[in-house]
UniProtKB/TrEMBL annotation:
Domain of life: Eukaryota
Record's protein name: Uncharacterized protein
Amino acid sequence: ASNAELLTSETNQEGIGYSIVLKASKRVVVTFSVSTVHSGIARFQFLISTVNNKTSASFGDAIELSLPVFTPATSEAFATYGDVGGAEVIVQPIKTPKDVIPQFG
C-alpha cells in the first residue's frame, strides 16, 4: 500500500499483510484496518493464488485499487472581530483544540 498503513492482527506481521486459506467453493469476507498517512491517493494491491496440486494447476491474479483520501472537515470553527487600526494593544489567547491532526491544524 502507498499512503496507507495496514493495521495487522497479532498473527500477521506488519508490512506482510494477511494470509487466509479457503476450502474449495467457499467464500469469506475479509476486512482490512488501515490508517492513511496524508490526503491524496491511497493505493492498495491485492494478490490471490491457488495451491498447485495433482488435479489442477496453480492460478494467480492481482489488482491495484486507488482510493481518494480527502482532507477531513473541521468540527470546530472560530472568528475574532475588532479594529486593529488604533494604538491599543491587546492579547488574544489561543487554546489548541484536543485531537488536532497535525498536518491540517
